[in-house]
Specification:
This protein is an alpha/beta fold and about 350 residues long. The chain is about 45% helix and about 10% strand. The chain is built from 15 helices and nine strands. The protein is globular and about 55 Å long.
Length: about 350
């Protein structure tokens, strides 16, 4: 049964037969079968077709034997569904036609109705029976990371316009993040009601902030999203990149599992998040390009450091890079499963 899966047990801090493993961006360009099925189909279009979503989500489960599937979608899907004119440009990421920077812009952000993303619910309903005992992870972008795309208009290195709004007009910033929290919570609830077994809230770019600013400008909104799922009975994973100084706060926001990038050893992270939360991570995705002996040594180190946590879900410290050799990922899954917890 799904509930007895190693993945859900580790999320809850229960004993496991082996350390569970899945990879952020396990579905995607590292797989030839993904590149083939996506030929001539735009990214957003593929997210709106339940048949494609189902097949792409299953591809890495079939190939690698990972312990969990993650729904194929994108963090900007609910924003587009709520009427924001945006596209996902290959090699760049999300690009927003009219960035949100003024009070009038924020007014354009309407709430998400479940019917706006019926194709996501449909894909989840198709996937759950196909997956059998393998849990399906639903996900959404957290308010800060979503705001960064909407305010910048696309990917950014400095988050200059985002921070200018945050510091320059805190009231408008909180209004914006409040609306984004509503959209995110509605999007996650659709996925939970359709049958996902866990959710991951991606605050990928929160590492751009100090802890004090994170607590003042971001945490209350992410906490509202996570609290809104408290009654759902599914583990809540909260992840960001470059978040060494934010790990405690990201746990306090209401996570059952804190995702850690490769910069912080898991034993140190365990001391920071405390005994009431599990950890997910944290092999450097670039290590997969090293000789196998190095991959094995680093993976064993991650498992050994992960023993300090209440529970440990093995993952990379960020997403699979498109150039990754998929056979290395398969071999890594076998290795993780062969090392007893
Ligand atoms: O396998 C999985 O992890 C599930 C699918 C997934 C995608 N996006 C598919 C995707 C998930 C979980 C996401 C989340 C997402 N999207 C995040 C948070 C995770 C993270 O990486 O920190 C962010 C920041 C985005 C925004 C986004 N969308 C970026 C930065 C990109 C990459 C741009 C590029 O081309 O390199 C996308 C596009 C995207 N989302 C792709 C995939 C498979 C690549 C597009 C393609 O295959 O054509």
């Amino acid at each position: 049964m799904t509930n007895d899966s190693a993945f859900l047990r580790a999320c809850r801090g229960l004993g496991v037969p082996h350390t569970p493993v899945w990879f952020m961006r396990q579905a995607g360009r590292s797989l030839p079968e993904y590149r083939k099925i996506r030929e001539g189909v735009g990214m957003l279009e593929s997210c709106r077709r339940p048949d494609l979503v189902t097949e792409i989500t299953l591809q890495p489960v079939r190939r690698h034997g990972v312990d969990a599937a993650i729904l194929f979608s994108d963090i900007v899907v609910p924003l587009a569904a709520a009427g924001i004119d945006l596209d996902i440009v290959a090699g760049t990421g999300p690009v927003v036609a009219e960035p949100i920077r003024t009070a009038a812009d924020v007014q354009r952000l309407r709430p998400l109705e479940p019917g706006d993303v019926s194709y996501v619910a449909e894909a989840v309903r198709l996937l759950v029976p196909e997956l059998g005992a393998t849990p399906l992870i639903g996900f959404a972008g957290a308010p800060f990371t979503l705001a960064s795309y909407l305010v910048e208009g696309g990917p950014s290195r400095t988050y200059l316009k985002t921070k200018a709004l945050m510091y320059g007009d805190p009231q408008l910033w909180h209004t914006l993040c409040g609306r984004l929290a509503d959209i995110t919570l509605a999007f996650l609830r659709v996925q939970v009601e359709a049958g996902v077994s866990a959710v991951q809230l991606f605050d990928s770019w929160a590492g751009a902030l100090s802890e004090a600013d994170y607590r003042e400008y971001v945490l209350p909104h992410s906490a509202r999203v996570l609290a809104g799922l408290a009654d759902a009975g599914v583990p809540r994973i909260h992840f960001g990149v470059g978040t060494a100084v934010l790990l405690r706060a990201m746990g306090e926001a209401g996570a059952d599992v804190v995702g850690v990038d490769w910069r912080t050893p898991l034993d140190r992270a365990a001391g920071i998040v405390g005994p009431d939360r599990s950890l997910q991570g944290n092999l450097d995705p670039a290590v997969l390009f090293a000789p196998w002996g190095v991959v094995e040594r680093e993976a064993r180190r991650v498992i050994s450091e992960g023993r300090a946590a209440r529970g440990h879900v093995f993952n990379l410290g960020h997403g699979v890079l498109p150039e990754t050799d998929p056979d290395v990922l398969t071999r890594l899954v076998e290795l993780i499963h062969s090392v007893s917890p």
